[in-house]
Amino acid sequence: MARSIWSGSVSFGLVNVPVKLYNAVQRRNVTFNQLHAEDQGRIQQKRVCSIDGDEVAFEEIVKGYEFSPGQYVVVTNDELESLGAKKTKMIEVEQFIDATEIDPLMFDSSYYVAPATGAGKSFRLMVDAMREAGKVGIGRFVLRQKEHLVALRVQGDALILVTLMYADEVVSTDALEDAGDVQGNVTDRELAMAQQLIGMLSAPFEPERYHDEYREQLIDLIERKVAGEEISLPPPPKAPKAVPDLMAALQASVDALATERGGATKPAAKPRARKAPANKPKAAQRS
């Protein structure tokens, strides 16, 4: 059973709905410890001063910001506590917007929002009202001493809280170093063939179809080694053959899919009308 990680209330206007917050995802990463290759002893990390080389006790460590190479200003815990992230128990909704207004690049972490004991009716009213309006709530709240910008959205009968990146944390495409420019003239035949390939690969999204194959293979490898099995490494995969041109690659892809599905390749349909390219997002400005 998942335990709540935060309790408080959602507020909009003069309405307050007591809620609890739960993690909506659970990472399943396989972690390793660092060992000494000679005797498999665990490696210990020590905090050592770069000036005198002595090991430093945890209580003697302070936070420092490097404002110039080798120069630091010390910031105390009390000073950090005095800053803007006030420890409130409130998710304060400041506005409601259409979900399409949020750039997906801003999405960070997801949590379930559930009603606190005795708040079932007010929670249901809030969820139903948001669903009927088709709106997403934008607000702020403090979790683990940090203030977060958040989006509250309805999914089925559940309310989801998604922490958002701030606008100045999203990298503009104009800032990409050594990135190639979109260029070249695409022919109608190439466009039609590309659209045909996309159509052949189109299907409803079924998340359960996809697995972390690397993690599954890693766990299998670990279990086999624990069982004492001697592991033989497979030969490295061969590099894909170079395709002479874009049209040949598209045609080969369509033919391969048609063969796999037991059907003949249909001639590419006329391409749909082209949409004007979207404007590049401007670099975010710091206030």
Largest beta sheet: strand ordering = 1-2-6-9-8-7-5
Fraction of residues in helix: 10-25%
CATH architectural group of the domain at 6-26 and 83-168: Beta Barrel
CATH C-level label of the domain at 6-26 and 83-168 = Mainly Beta
Derived structural class = alpha+beta
Gap from first CA to last CA: 43 Å
Question: Helices and strands, in N-to-C order?
Answer: EEEEHEEHEEEHHH
Query: What characterizes the major β-sheet?
Result: 7 strands, mixed, barrel
Question: Uncertain regions: pLDDT < 50 for 5+ in a row?
Answer: 283-287
CATH fold field value of the domain at 6-26 and 83-168: Ku70, Chain: A, Domain 2
Helical run tally? 5
Task: Give me the count of strands.
Answer: 9
Which term fits the overall shape? extended
Radius of gyration: 27 Å
Average pLDDT score? 87
Name the beta content range.
15-25%
Give your account of this protein's structure:
By secondary structure, the protein is of the alpha+beta class. Among the domains are: 6-26 and 83-168, Ku70, Chain: A, Domain 2, CATH 2.40.290; 186-195 and 249-274, no CATH class. It has five helices and nine strands, in the order E-E-E-E-H-E-E-H-E-E-E-H-H-H. A seven-stranded mixed β-barrel has the order 1-2-6-9-8-7-5. Strands 3-4 form a two-stranded antiparallel ribbon. A hairpin with a 2-residue loop joins strand 1 (6-12) and strand 2. Helix 3 runs parallel beside helix 5 (246-260). The radius of gyration is 27 Å and the shape is extended. The two termini are 43 Å apart. The model is unreliable at 283-287 (pLDDT under 50).
